[in-house]
Write a structure and sequence with these properties.
This protein is an alpha+beta fold. The protein folds into two domains: 6-37 and 104-169, no CATH class; 52-101, no CATH class. Helices cover 33% and strands 26% of the residues. It has seven helices and nine strands; from the N terminus they run αββααβαβββαβαββα. It has helices at 6-9, 39-48, 56-63, 78-81, 116-124, 143-153, 181-200; strands at residues 21-26, 29-37, 71-72, 89-92, 95-98, 104-112, 131-136, 155-161, 164-169. The protein has a six-stranded mixed β-sheet with strand order 1-2-6-7-8-9. Strand 7, helix 6 and strand 8 form a beta-alpha-beta unit. Helix 3 (56-63) packs across helix 7 (181-200) and helix 5 runs parallel beside helix 6 (143-153).
């Protein structure tokens, strides 16, 4: 775990696993991201040398293809296929098969903030991608207002300091209705930053 207060990881109200936390900068905010690695895809990418796919155009092309289902090359725009990095697809005798899927699944973006208003704004940046919560150093004075605002936006409020934490408002569960290029790009950007941190460690 990187950058996560142990008390937050242990908070029973959150029911979060201890593994797969990383402090990264995404969407202009420092965030502690709880995620699940997609082990099969990570292994496949290691074997073929494919890193993060951070081209929105490439991701849009991939989303138009079914996963692991061959599609005739004749119905695919060849110029679009040229956008794809090696290892994202397989071309074989007139058929193209999409291999790439998102390498991680984001579960919770935990945004440290000094004030709850700043926490609401920063955590709100992650609304399309995963559940969100702010981590405050001390309980806010206007607690009832904070609870009402945070609950309205579905943003959790956690107070954590000196090894202890308290969940004032649990984060609303995240429901993904469909995979979008923007959502996939977020996961690829997070994966790239996590990979860079791992390489530096």
């Amino acid at each position: 775990m990187t950058g996560l207060p142990q008390a937050v990881a242990d908070a029973p109200d959150l029911a979060l696993s201890r593994a797969s936390w990383s402090r990264v900068v995404l969407r202009g905010a420092s965030v502690v991201l709880h995620y699940e690695p997609v082990q099969a895809e990570l292994g496949r990418r290691r074997r073929c040398g494919l890193g993060a796919i951070t081209s929105p155009d490439a991701l849009r092309v991939l989303l138009d293809l079914p996963v692991n289902v061959p599609v005739p090359l004749s119905v695919i725009d060849r110029a679009a296929l040229d956008l794809l990095p090696s290892g994202a697809i397989q071309v074989d005798r007139g058929w193209v098969t999409r291999l790439a899927v998102a390498p991680i699944e984001a579960r919770l973006a935990l945004v440290p903030a000094r004030s709850w208003r700043a926490g609401l704004e920063r955590a709100g940046r992650f609304a399309p991608f995963c559940a969100r919560a702010m981590l405050l150093p001390k309980p806010p004075r206007d607690l009832d207002v904070v609870r009402m605002e945070a609950d309205f936006y579905g943003i959790g409020v956690i107070v954590g300091a000196e090894g202890e934490s308290c969940v004032l408002v649990p984060p609303a569960p995240f429901e993904r209705r469909r995979r979008t290029a923007a959502g996939w790009l977020f996961l690829e950007q997070a994966y790239r930053r996590i990979t860079l941190l791992s390489a530096e460690a």
